[in-house]
Design brief:
Length: about 230
């Protein structure tokens, strides 16, 4: 027991443990109805900036990363809880395997910092492996009319480009905003392009989009826009 406490309460494992306890406290408060369960998602996944094109919240870099690794659609609270738990386990094992020299505080700090980074990377990789299969489950239990609700809504390209094989962006859903995968088979759409969702692609868990200028008829593909 003393060995367990030594590593669990030592640096850097106690940091992940403290953050995990904070997440468990958040879940408890959410279960009591004192906060919305998706409030943390809004804070983590959207940076809160306004856009003149009508999208209320721009998607953050974290949301883009989650889409790239296949965790888009899974609540951020679930992802963060699993990430902290697996990072705590990785940190505990690494601290057990890597000895800390006695009487070398600065060296221990450097070693502990390196172990913290390694534990976080391992925890993130394990989180992707554990949670990625749940994305399909979330899609299956989602209301079937959701694609029709989003059809025709406007958004912004947030990745470097949206083309036939990759890309993502933020969509004005009439509430806090959504980050979704996007595809544009006809032409490449660079970051910042205002788009319209015109077709749901369930096989790719994505949306086919066109630029709003093209949708409105003010821009013809292949021609320069009017001056």
């Amino acid at each position: 027991m003393s060995t367990f406490l030594h590593y669990a309460l030592g640096f850097p494992t106690f940091i992940f443990g403290a953050l995990l306890l904070c997440m468990l406290l958040y879940w408890l408060i959410a279960l009591l109805g004192l906060v919305e369960t998706d409030s943390l998602d809004q804070w983590l996944l959207f940076d809160g900036s306004d856009h003149a094109h009508g999208v209320e919240h721009s998607v953050s870099a974290l949301a883009g990363l989650l889409l790239k690794v296949g965790l888009g659609g899974i609540p951020a609270t679930v992802i963060l809880t699993v990430l902290l738990l697996l990072s705590w386990l990785a940190s505990y094992v690494l601290c057990h395997l890597v000895p800390m020299p006695e009487g070398w505080a600065l060296l221990n700090l450097l070693i502990g910092s390196a172990l913290a980074v390694a534990a976080l990377v391992l925890g993130f990789a394990a989180t992707v492996v554990v949670l990625r299969p749940l994305r399909g489950l979330v899609a299956r239990i989602a209301p079937p009319e959701t694609p029709q609700v989003l059809l025709g809504r406007t958004g912004l390209v947030r990745s470097g480009v949206v083309n036939a094989t990759q890309g993502y962006g933020s969509v004005d859903d009439g509430g806090g905003g959504l980050n979704v995968q996007m595809r544009s088979p006809e032409r490449d759409l660079p970051r910042g392009t205002e788009i319209v969702l015109i077709e749901h692609l369930p096989e790719h868990n994505a949306w086919r989009v066109v630029s709003k200028a093209e949708f409105d008829g003010s821009e013809i593909p292949g021609l320069l826009p009017p001056v």
